[in-house]
User: Which sequence fits this backbone?
């Protein structure tokens, strides 16, 4: 997704001279196309994320539209107070780009995992949160920031998985994009982990279980009307996200079901426990924390076999 992001940003900057790109000493062998094309509009402030966002806030106040790039936990957590007191409270168009959501930086260890970034931004009124699923959605996601008057958090996946089948680059913040139709239940995903949800649906199809697969690309402001339409036809939904169970997509769906009175059982495939110190590849961590295609398929089996009242058969 990173290469797709830089290409899209170069195209946007060619049309809008207000666009800047700032980094906290990251993005080597990735951000060079922008730096070489627009050297006066590229700033590396060093390993100083609070200053990075503070500088971007000042530039936005002066009329620029700064894109601020860092690894997702460094972008979301280290400068969080500066983000709240600057771009959010002053409603400024700072674009925060978090690279490597979830376990994408698995081997780098716990400090590099982004498991709460969507949650901490989703609670802030005025923050827009975009989570593209694959590289085909990234150009539209970058373009969509142009219509946002206030700050945006853009969470990008680090890996280079194939595009999600059936999605074809559709990116509508107000929609729930259905990449695979189905009648028995719904797998609803956020971010690049959607690939595992799609694989789980294929596994279950061989067992005669026909599940739809959908993705939510904007969790703040929530596409509430689209969620109601997507959830209402199904007896159960399994949400899938490389994020803590609290605060992300599963929480959004739970809120929607409760507030709208939709009789749809919810199972959340997410990270339910604090990391224990073991590291490894993202695939290993997905399996360890219940986000592999096998774990998602098993969660869907359990949801399908549960009694309407919520108990096990």
Assistant:
């Amino acid at each position: 997704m990173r290469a797709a992001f830089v290409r899209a940003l170069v195209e946007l900057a060619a049309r809008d001279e207000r666009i800047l790109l700032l980094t906290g000493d990251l993005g080597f062998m990735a951000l060079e196309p922008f730096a070489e094309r627009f050297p006066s509009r590229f700033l590396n402030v060093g390993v100083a994320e609070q200053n990075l966002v503070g500088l971007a806030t000042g530039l936005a106040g002066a009329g620029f539209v700064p894109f601020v790039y860092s690894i997702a936990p460094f972008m979301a957590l280290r400068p969080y107070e500066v983000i709240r007191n600057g771009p959010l409270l002053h409603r400024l168009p700072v674009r925060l780009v978090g690279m490597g959501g979830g376990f994408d930086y698995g081997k780098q260890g716990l400090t590099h995992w982004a498991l709460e970034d969507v949650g901490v931004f989703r609670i802030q009124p005025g923050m827009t949160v975009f989570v593209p699923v694959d590289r085909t959605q990234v150009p539209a996601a970058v373009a969509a920031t142009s219509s946002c008057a206030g700050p945006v958090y853009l969470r990008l996946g680090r890996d280079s998985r194939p595009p999600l089948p059936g999605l074809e680059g559709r990116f509508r913040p107000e929609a729930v994009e259905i990449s695979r139709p189905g009648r028995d239940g719904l797998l609803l995903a956020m971010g690049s982990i959607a690939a595992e949800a799609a694989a789980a649906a294929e596994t279950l199809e061989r067992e005669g279980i026909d599940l739809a697969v959908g993705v939510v690309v904007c969790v703040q402001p929530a596409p509430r009307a689209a969620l109601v339409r997507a959830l209402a036809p199904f007896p159960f939904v399994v949400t899938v996200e490389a994020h803590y169970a609290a605060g992300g997509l599963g929480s959004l769906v739970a809120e929607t079901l409760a507030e709208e009175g939709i009789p749809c059982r919810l199972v959340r495939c997410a990270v339910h426990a604090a990391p224990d110190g073991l590291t490894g590849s993202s695939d290993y961590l997905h399996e360890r924390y219940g986000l592999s295609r096998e774990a998602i398929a098993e969660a869907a089996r359990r949801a399908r076999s549960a009694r309407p009242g919520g108990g096990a058969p």
Summary: The chain has a mean pLDDT of 95. The longest strand covers residues 236-244. The two ends are 42 Å apart (CA to CA). The CA atoms of residues 305 and 313 lie 7 Å apart.
